[in-house]
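Input record (Table S2, row 476):
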Amino acid sequence: MKTSSTSKLRQAADTYRTILDALEEWVVVVDHNARIFFLNRPYARFLGVNADDVKGKKVTDVIENTRMHITIEKGVAERLSIQKIRGSNMIASRFPITDQGKVIGAVGTVIFHDTYEWKRINSHIKALLAEYEFRAQDKSTPELPTSSHYRLADIVGDSKAIKELNQTITQVASGDVTVLLRGESGTGKELYAHAIHQLSERADAPFIKVNCAAIPENLLESELFGYEEGAFTGAKKGGKAGKFQLAHGGTLFLDEIGDLPLSMQAKLLRVLQEREVEAVGSTSPSPVNIRLITATHRPLETLIKEGTFREDLYYRINVVNVSLPPLRERQEDIAKLAEHFLQALSRRTGRRAPKLTAQAMTALLEYHWPGNIRELENIMEAAFFTAQDRKIPLSLLPSNVRNHAQLESSVEQSNDSATTSVYTATGTLKEQMDRAEKTAIKQALSQAFGNRTLAAKQLGISKSTLYEKLSKHQLA
Ligand SMILES: Nc1ncnc2c1ncn2[C@@H]1O[C@H](COP(=O)(O)OP(=O)(O)OP(=O)(O)O)[C@@H](O)[C@H]1O
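Output record (adenosine-5'-triphosphate complex):
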């Protein structure tokens, strides 16, 4: 029996070797004794072994932290579990291979080579889904006006910057003033566009979003202004309403306005001036009543100088300018946002939310967040699904966040050692004390997950003293 099961596996492995070697996924096949039968070349390369040499070796001697022998023993599949190999957290799955009800071997795959890659692919899949939905919506007829899902209450954060921002948008929401939202990618511009709509008198009317950067240039005009039946080859019977018509009575949100091609800028300007749109192929314009909100992460003033953005359009859209601060400038919101995303995932999946360790939280606080809140959201999502024992340790964070934290802490340590070893001309007693105070405050905050009341208690100072020190050390 053993010999025949062995030869079956050998035959299968030989036949599929070429195919399996071409995969990006890493594959290992073991026999019923948990000895390696097949290892694909990408996996062998990563392990630093020769695929042929390890044949017949115990899998536990070749692959660190493997559980293939347990899969054989129990005959139970394990999907998407974390396996630490050569210092990285991989995402691995293991399946028993059975023949007439008997386990004759097992196949293991490593599909993501670290948790960061998982996050990246997850974002990629989300982007593909968004594109698919865009195309599907384009085909569906009639098109349904979308509505706004967010309200001011969905905006997390109580930093001074966020409080001021919330006050501003509450003031500008009522009335039909045109708003230009500016800020780096992922700072929440779309969220705020929804909130402004929700707070306005148009809250019950449609909220229509157009991502100017996502629509191919040749489709933009018909997407924005619609088309008449027979306007061009492939035009739908009965024509199609544009986003302007769909937003009639409500709010039109033009995201990534800085990416609008010049030809469309001229047409948009005309619509905003005339307050009427003309569908492609139509000869009679129809009036539109919309509130316009636009957003961009691009420096419009530079684009004007370069001649890629029209100055007259700029003045038309820039009536009220709201700037969203990058996440690194409102560090005190990080803990709250991280917790918010973990709790949201917990509600969505029915799983209990894992907790960030103090070290992981410190890394989040010290990271510079080029992708802002969206980056934090993605990292929390990856950590949520890969956490074990309901904990998110530093090792589960992507290497860029970890490395940054390590770099910061080594800078800090070298500063600290400078203060404790020799007295230097630059290190007066006051400077040394200041540095020590700043480190103590940062540590207390990270241990208290950003909760200032707790941090103040731990430091034995009043909350108002903590606030003074936060602003003195520019930690607020
Ligand atoms: N203050 C906040 N509270 C809770 N979630 C937030 C907050 N700000 C942003 N988010 C979330 O972060 C993600 C990114 O926000 P959003 O899409 O609004 O950013 P953006 O500035 O429009 O990005 P882009 O310029 O790339 O389009 C979204 O999932 C959003 O819900």
